[in-house]
Amino acid sequence: MLKDNIIFNGMMPEEIDLALKELSSVEKTYTKDSIILRAGDITDSLGLVISGNVTIESNDAWGNRTILSNVAMGGFFAETYALLENEPLLVDVRANENCRILFFKVGS
């Protein structure tokens, strides 16, 4: 699946392996409704959905949830926050179903 992703498109398998190592990639699994990243968290990694999908949502003080985006397999999330040093997330990222996420460290 990675060789078809826009970041790795055109790369040989050994080049993908080297890139994953250099980006300190880590794969994690989440069950449906698990919180992957919570508003207020600080992250230096962006996530790539390998399987399943996630929602980007905003939850207010009154318990109202607004879904801002749905990120399907092959999509990225938290890329902006990963590049902003010490900037807390303003949204939650939730597993919309069982999923596997590959995190890439991009911050300093």
Question: Can you describe what's shown?
Answer:
With 108 residues, this protein is mainly beta. It has a single domain, classed as Sandwich (Jelly Rolls), CATH 2.60.120. The protein has helices at residues 13-22, 79-83, and strands spanning 26-30, 35-37, 45-51, 54-59, 65-71, 76-77, 92-95, 99-105. Strands 1-8-3-6 form a 4-stranded antiparallel beta sheet. A hairpin with a 5-residue loop joins β4 (54-59) and β5. The longest helix is centred in the N-terminal third of the chain and has 10 residues, at 13-22. It starts with 12 loop residues before the first helix and ends with a strand. The model has no long low-confidence stretch (mean pLDDT 90).
**Reported CATH architecture:** Sandwich
The proportion of strand residues reads 35-45%
The average pLDDT value, as a whole number, equals 90
What does the overall shape look like?
Answer: globular
Helices, by number, come to 2
Structural class: mainly beta
Q: What is the CA-based Rg, rounded?
A: 14 Å
* Count of folded domains: 1
According to CATH, the fold-level topology is Jelly Rolls
What do we call the CATH homologous superfamily? Jelly Rolls
Strand order of the largest sheet: 1-8-3-6
The CATH class is Mainly Beta
Stretches with pLDDT under 50, minimum 5 residues? none
